[in-house]
What we know:
The chain is an all-alpha fold. About 65% of the residues lie in helices and about 0% in strands.
Amino acid sequence: MPEIHRTFTATERQFLTFALDLAADEMASCGDEFTEADEAALERLRRIAAEDDTR
């Protein structure tokens, strides 16, 4: 999968982080419905959201 480089504004980053936190809460409450691949995808999106926007 190709890398996508995107710089987020502070507001976009805050909103994305909020949405990812909600997704993590939902995943945790659903028990075994999500796979390790799902959890890895969530973590990858969190890393992207947390990247410094100084590129």
